Amino acid sequence: MPQNDSTSSAPRANPGYAAFQIARALTTSEQHGDAATRERAHAKAEKWMVVLEGLLSGQFAVGSRQPMADAPVWATPEVVTGGFVTGQLLAGGPLRPHEKEIASRIRAEAADDKRQKLNAWFLSDAGFSELTERLSSGRYDIDVPEEAALLVAAWMAQNGAADEARELVEVIAPHFALLRFYPKPAERTMPQGARIFLESVGTVISRLRSIQPNPLILAQREAIQVWMPLYEKLVALFLETVRGEAPGIQPDSEGRWASRETGRFYLIGGWPCLNYAADWRERARTVVAAIVQARAAHKLCRRPDDARDSFARLLGYLRKCSDDPASLTGRDVGMIRLILARHVASRGLPGSPQHETASARQLSQIVKPMLHQVAGIVAQRMGNLPADVGLDDNTVILQPVSAHEADTTGVAVGTEVPVSIAGKVERCLCDTSDVLIERGIVTSGETLARVIPQFTASLRASAFGHPQLRALYAATYRAFRRRRSLLLFNLEKQVQIEELPWVAAIERRRQQDLTSRDLSRQTLKDVAALTLRAFPQAIIPNKLLQEFRALSKGGELSLPFVEELAADIFMDDFSPKFTQAAKQAAAFVEGTLYARYFGLDCAAVMRLPETKPGPRRWSFFQREAPANPFAALCIQRAAAAEGKPWDVARNGMVIEQSQILTTHNLALIFGALGLEADLQPELRDMAERCFRWLCRRLQVRSDKWHAKLIMLKQTAYAWRQMIFILSRLPHEEAGQFIVWAEDHLREQSADFHARFIPALRGLALVHGGSPLDDTGDVRRFLGWTQARHWLLDDEPPKAAQ
What we know:
- The chain has helices spanning 15-31, 35-57, 97-105, 114-121, 125-137, 149-158, 162-172, 201-209, 215-240, 280-297, 310-323, 330-347, 353-364, 371-382, 403-409, 419-426, 433-438, 445-461, 467-481, 501-507, 514-534, 542-554, 576-589, 593-597, 602-606, 629-638, 648-662, 666-672, 676-679, 683-698, 705-727, 731-746, 750-767, 790-793; strands at residues 77-80, 84-89, 140-141, 184-185, 248-249, 267-268.
- The protein starts with 14 loop residues before the first helix and ends in an 8-residue tail after the last helix.
- α5 (125-137) packs across α6, α10 (280-297) packs across α11 (310-323) and α18 packs parallel to α22.
- By secondary structure, the chain is an all-alpha fold.
- It is built from 34 helices and six strands.
- The strands form three sheets. It has a two-stranded antiparallel ribbon with strand order 1-2.
């Protein structure tokens, strides 16, 4: 969280956050049971140590859009959780395998400045020829945007813009030793179009191959295959020594094996250790030796070493008996009789139909192949597919195990691919976004934000007339969208794609026509509608808003989409777009249920002046009053004028009011984009899904305080989204929804009903035309508070559930 001292006006990041991340990663690296997870955690800890060192030394300008002074602002930094840089650049670092191959070809592998020589080689005749060949064939990968720079220069040089190409090279040449500006070779062209995929084939193959055998299942298999036969031999040896009928259990009339009063078993049959064959002791020693030998090779099952288990007990008695039967006490013989009786009662005598049935039942539990075996077969099937694209059809991949596969793996012919493996394969299925949502592959707005850039890239690239330039821009755009956001102060903006020198060099060649403009607008409407239909309870995540802005720009629309702000770095100020969004929202919701519920003075909001942010001074002890009228209004509505300067809860209350005033983009989507008519038939269902979701979410118990706060924030989002949706319904239909919600709430636990009914009463009160005074019996549901939230006041402890 930002903090200040009394001598500086610039906010700084708290090193304690980095220290916490180091401690958590180190704990995982030392204690986690999985070796791969420990290794990843160790690498994460090392990155955070670099971050901490940079914070303490002042090496990194945390909060600036150019955090590393020796790297240009457009260079892609390595960013960890929270927006902190590690000091590494993603286009820098050690040479990658494809770079080493080129270095070997040009005999630069021994040079100290390998990357400088590699970049320079691509400006030679041979290197330039390779670039142009990659351009024409489309066989290249752009992992980070910098790798497109020399391809852009090559395209311009080929297409009558040699001077501009030289200018671009002059801009990037000072960084040749630091960054790679050339692409990675690829075996095939990246497909373009509306079909998208969540993960590539290569990623799914890696996931499948990382599946390890389940140790519990391995222990079960060992118990059945190794130890049960040996245990049967122990039992058989002692049954030989019984005089009379084999011991058993005679259940009482109610089917109980033991007396309810005394706990003693209803044993029947003879006693063991009374008859010994001449070779019995020798055979007993052979079984004991076999068990010792088996234990040396099989150590997963704990049964043979558990002193409380019948296996370990019977083995101990057999050792005694094989040495000297007379050493057994009467208590020992009684225990042997009980063990034999329980075994015979549950499994039957060896060789009997009951015994054979019990053994077959146990063996059936381990007949099915283990998950990692089937995963290996599926990964092998996918191994010949292109690794960097999606999968058009998974039918062949998910077919039952063939005879050839059974011969080479030992998995039975016809074995079906388990649902869990099929789910992993589906993650690389290539289809339209609505199909991926319908099939449950895309499960949230955050996930949708990961895949939409694949389509948006092609759409934005369509404005370029030259096919090679379209493909190059699309690849650059996808790589840029993978760039992680920096922690920024003072309303600084993240680096935009147009700031990349090689992108700026080709932007002027964009041929925006009516078709591409209309396509961008329609795509924005489609994606926005898809998001709201699929996830009505959630605000649009910041990553997805980036795509909304890109589509808005392509459609020549000026829409002030506002992002979710972080409460721990909030500085009592908002960029001008928040005021613009609030004014548009006020005009849209004036007089509606939404405005009445949240007590909005829409006329006052619409009169807010639009001001630009200016420099502000800060100290650890005092806030400067905001000059931004919109910020002042949010602070006033949150009743947060007083308090500690860096109180996260106080900041969250102010941010929540900004979300209420702007409707967090809903007014823009319904109004400016004109989606209200399209969504009207589905609004009632969307509102019900919001309410069902928040009821489920609010009843998830957690012992962690931070998890409870996240739960409150997310459910308050869902409640606000629901109220906005209700405000677009006719008054009578909104009333019907409230009746339905009351019935649904009565179906929940009595405790939750008692805690949440004040919120529903508040909504019903406002719907009926009365003001909401926020008393104990009637509540306005907000997510942030500086006191303990009223929804948590009467929450019983987890142990009481």
